[in-house]
Amino acid sequence: MPSEPTGSDRPWVVWRQDDNGNRYEVRRCATREEAEALAAEFEARGHKQLYWVAGV
After folding, report:
1. Where are the domains of the chain?
2. DSSP secondary structure string, the chain?
3. What is the strand order of the sheet 23-29 is part of?
């Protein structure tokens, strides 16, 4: 069974920007699809923060 990818093996990052313009790395993901789904999940919660996905 393959091991779970570590942070450096996860090439997609979900980012968050708060109301003050501060940017934070939320989580690294193994696939773009996983990262997009996570960003969509956070956006669906109705917070005012901006979420996006970027490659490492």
Report:
1. 8-55
2. -PPPP-GGG--EEEEEE-TTS-EEEEEEESSHHHHHHHHHHHHHTT-S-EEEEEE-
3. 23-29, 12-17, 50-55
Rounded CA separation 3/17 (Å)? 31
- Distance from C-alpha of 11 to C-alpha of 56, rounded to nearest angstrom: 5
pLDDT tens, position by position, for the chain (56 residues)? 555 666 668 999 999 999 899 999 999 999 999 999 999 999 999 878 999 999 99
Is residue 26 within 8 A of residue 16, CB to CB? The reply is: yes
Please name the residue that has the structure tokens 């313009």: 21
Q: Do residues 35 and 14 lie in contact, with contact meaning Cβ atoms separated by under 8 Å?
A: yes
